[in-house]
Recover the amino acids of this structure.
C-alpha cells in the first residue's frame, strides 16, 4: 500500500507502547514504506508484551529493551541493531517522555527536584544519550534522519503540562545543538515534530487532558492531527525528500500554533 | 523513477522561468511523482519560450499565461486548468518574486514608493490574488496544498535583499491569514518554504549574491540546499503525508536558520 | 511627578487622536518626563480639534499636520520640528494604522486590492516614509529611538483583524530593515511594541472587538495592558536606558503572547 | 545621578562576582536609582571578598551567601532579606551560570552527564528554586519583577557555547512556566534578557571567546552591548514602567539577533 519511500532504509523506533501510540503508528507506516525496523522501549514498558504484536506485523522486527538513561543499554541497542541490519541505521524516532511530578500530582510550583532531574533525563537528555551513542559508534548513515516528538508547551505555557514544558524546551535545544555537530560531521539531520495533543495512553495521564484536546480542536483551523497523520509526517522526514531540513521544530498541529483565536473559540467565550 | 507520491493529483506551477529555477525542478519532480500539471508564468516571461520544453517533458502540460496582478488572468488560468484537469486543483506552487527597486539599483533607504507598491503586489499580494481566485471559484480540492517560496530575510536583515525582505514578510503573513480561512472552509493548507539562497536566474540579479551564497554555504551545517532538493521538499508538502502542516514558514536551508555561527565562519573571521 | 527620564529630549508623536489613544497617553508621559514635543496627525484627524487640548497640556507643543503618505508633508513636519527644537529629534512614536477594508466591512477573502494598497501604505510603509525623510535630512540624533505600535496578529491569525495583520507584519519588517541601516549609520534604534488590545477610538471600529478584549483579558496572566501602561513602556524605549535594544518586536501584553491557554479560558470552554 | 526610578524598591542581586560582572553593574545602577539591596552569591564565590566593596558602595547592603541548589540557603536568604528590608522584595536579578563540561574542556558530544545535571541545576533550575522559595514564603511584592540573564545560544547554535545553550533554553522555559503562575497569583513578572557576549570574568572562561566577541561586534548594527548598558536595561525592567512585560526573552544585543549578515561580515568573508 505504501510508496516505497523508505525502501532499503533501516530505522530504530523508540517508544511504541501500544497501538494508540505515535511510535506504533510510525513503525507500521515505515514498514509499509519499505523500511526494516528495530523496536525498543524501556524494559518496564516491554513487560506488557504488546510490542510483540507490532514486531510481528513489521516483518518480525527485533525488540531490544533499552533504558534510555543507561549508556550501556543504548550501546547494546545500537550494536544489536547494526548486527541485525548488517550496516548503519538510517533513521531514528525518539518518542519518549515521562514526568514524575505530573504522575505524582505535584504542581509546577511544588515540584520535587529529584523527580524533575529524572524527568529531564528521561524526556530530554535521553536524546543526547541516543545521539551520542550513535556518534561514538558512527552508527548513523550519512544523511540519516532523527526525529523527536515534542509539544508547543515548549514555546507557550499550558499550565497543566507542568515540568514537561521545560523538558520539551530542553529536548528542542538538544536537537539544535547536536544537530549542528552531527550535520557538520555526517550530514545527519535532527528535528522535532511539535504534534497536536493526541489521545495516546501516555497523554491520558495528564490532568484535564480531554478538555484540552477539545480546546485544541476548536483552535486549529484543520482540527487536531491524529497519530496516523503524525506517522505520515515522520515518514517524509525519514525519506530522502527532506535532506536539507534540520535543527528545526516543525509544527504538525492543523494550524494551532499560528492561530491566535478562532471564530469557534470566540463563540464559546461569549456563552 | 518516482514513488507515485502525487498519483492522481493535479497542480498548477507558477514561475518556471528556465531549467535552473525551483519551479522548473518542482514541475519535473511532481510529474515524475505522478501528478498532472498546468504551467503558468507572466506573459513577458513566457515570451522566451523556454517553458515549452518543460511542458513537453511533463506530458504536454498546458502553458497558460497569467499576470499575477490581474484578476482576469488568474480567473482565466483557473478556469482553463479546471477544464484541462476535468476537476479541481490539488496543489499550487507560488514561485514569484520581483523587486523593481533592486532591479533599478535603488538602495533600501532611497526606494521609489511606486516601484515598491508594485514589488509588494507582484511578490506578496499575488499570493492573495491566486488564493482568492481559487476561493471564489472553489477551485482547490479539500485538503489541497499551496506552497509559496520565501527567504529568511523576512526574519533577519540581509542588507542587499532590500525591499524583498519586506515583500517576503508580507507574503508569509498572507500565508497565515488566508491559511486560516481556507483551512476552516476547505481544509486547504498553505505554507511557505524558506529556501537557501539558490543560483537561479532570478537570484543572480541580486547584488553581492555570489559572495552571499558562499557565506550561507559556510554557515549551514549541511551546506546550501539546491533547487532539486527544494523540489523534493515541495513534493512532500503537496502529498497526503503532510495534511496537518499549515500556516507555517518551513526552513529548507541545511540548518542555516538555527545556526548562530559555525567553526568555518569563525575561522574566516580570524583571518 | 515624572523622573526626568527624558529630560532634554525632543520627540515627535504621531497619532494622538483623542485622550483614549496610546499616542495621547504617551505624549502626556513624555512631557511629564521632561521631553519637548511636536504633535502630528493626518489633516482630517486634526480637524476634530481634540489634539489642541493635548498640545496645551504639553507646554504648548506645536501641532503640525502631516499626511504620512505624502513625502512633502513629512519633510515639512521634520523641518518645522527641527526649527522648533533648535536641533535634531531624539525620539518618534509611530501610532498609525487604518484599514479601509475593515472600515468598509470587506472580509479578508473579499478584499478590495486598491484599498489594501492604501492600508499597507498608511499603516506600514508610512514608517518607511517617516524614517526615510528623517534619514535624508539627518534629522534624528545619534542613539535616537523610534517606536511603532503593532499587534500580535502579525504572528498569529485573529480572523477579525483582517488585512491589518498583513499590514502589521509589513510594518515589523520595515522596522528591522530600516533599523539595520539607521543603526549602522547613526546608532538610531527602531522597535515595535506589540500591545494588548486596547479600548481606543481606533480599536472600537474592529468587529467583535469587545468580545476579543475580554478573551485577551482571560488569556493574559497579568490581564490586558492599558494605554497608560503602554505609554510607560514607550518612555523606557525613548530613554537612554535601552540604547542597545533595536530591530525588535517587543510584546507588551501581560503575558498573552507566551501563554497557550489559561485556567480561566479552559473553564469557559468547559461551560 | 539617577532618576529615582527604583525609589522605595527593594531587590536581591545574585551573581555580582567582580566589578566587570553584569550583576555588579546592575547593583550599582539600582542603588543609584534609589533601591535598597541585598547581595548574594555562592559561598565559594564570596570567599574572594570582592563583593564587600560593592556592598559598601551600595549603602552597606547585606551580603548573604546562598548556594542556589540548596533550598535551605535560599530560604535563609529570603528570610534575612525580608528582615533587613522590613517587608517584601520588589525585584530579583538572577545572573547565575556555570558549565562544568565547558570548564573541564569536554566537547558537547562527549559531555559527562553528571556534570551536565549540575550545570542544568545551577544555571537553569536555580531560577525555579529561587522563585519557588519566594512563592512559598510569599516574599515578592505584587507587580514585582524578576530578571534572569541568558544568551541567544538558546535559539541558535554557537558551537563553543556547548551545554550552556541547553541550560539557557531550560532557563527561558522556566521563566515562561513560572511566569505564568506567579503572574496569575501575584502579578509578578518574570523575563530573561538575552545579552550580547560580554567581557566578564565568567565569560572569559569560554574557548574562542575573544574571537567570538569581535564577530558579534561586526554582526551587530549598534555593536555589542556593554555590562553597563545591560544594567540600565535591567533597571527599566525592575521599574514600574514595564509592568505588563512578562514571560519574555528580551534581546539586548545591538540588533545582533535580527541581523542575518552585515556588510562588515560579508567584507571579511570575501578576504
Amino acid at each position: 500500500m505504501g510508496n516505497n519511500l523508505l525502501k532499503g532504509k533501516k530505522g530504530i523506533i523508540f517508544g511504541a507502547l501500544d497501538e494508540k501510540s505515535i511510535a506504533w503508528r510510525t513503525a507500521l507506516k515505515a514498514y509499509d514504506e519499505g523500511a526494516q525496523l528495530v523496536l525498543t522501549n524501556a524494559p518496564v514498558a516491554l513487560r506488557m508484551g504488546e510490542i510483540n504484536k507490532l514486531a510481528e506485523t513489521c516483518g518480525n522486527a527485533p525488540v531490544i529493551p533499552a533504558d534510555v538513561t543507561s549508556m550501556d543499554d543504548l550501546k547494546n541497542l545500537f550494536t544489536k541493531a547494526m548486527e541485525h541490519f548488517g550496516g548503519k541505521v538510517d533513521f531514528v524516532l525518539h518518542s519518549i517522555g515521562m514526568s514524575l511530578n505530573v504522575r505524582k500530582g505535584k504542581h509546577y510550583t511544588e515540584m520535587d527536584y529529584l523527580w524533575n532531574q529524572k524527568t529531564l533525563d528521561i524526556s530530554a537528555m535521553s536524546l543526547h544519550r541516543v545521539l551520542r551513542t550513535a556518534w561514538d559508534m558512527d552508527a548513523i548513515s550519512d544523511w540519516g534522519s532523527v526525529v523527536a516528538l515534542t509539544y508547543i508547551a515548549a514555546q507557550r505555557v499550558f499550565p497543566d503540562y507542568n515540568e514537561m514544558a521545560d523538558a520539551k524546551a530542553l529536548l528542542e535545544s538538544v536537537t539544535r545543538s547536536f544537530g549542528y555537530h552531527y550535520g557538520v560531521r555526517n550530514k545527519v539531520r535532527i528535528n522535532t515534530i511539535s504534534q497536536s495533543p493526541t489521545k495516546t495512553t501516555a497523554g491520558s495521564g495528564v490532568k484535564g487532558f480531554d478538555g484540552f484536546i477539545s480546546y485544541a480542536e476548536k483552535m486549529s483551523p484543520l482540527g487536531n492531527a491524529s497519530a496516523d497523520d503524525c506517522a505520515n509526517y515522520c515518514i517524509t522526514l525519514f525519506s530522502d525528500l527532506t535532506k536539507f531540513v534540520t535543527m528545526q521544530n516543525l509544527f504538525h498541529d492543523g494550524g494551532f500554533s499560528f492561530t491566535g483565536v478562532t471564530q469557534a473559540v470566540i463563540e464559546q467565550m461569549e456563552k
About this structure: Chain A has ten helices and six strands. The domain at 10-270 of chain A is CATH 3.40.50.720 (Rossmann fold). The mean pLDDT of chain A is 95. The CA atoms of residues 79 and 172 of chain A lie 26 Å apart.
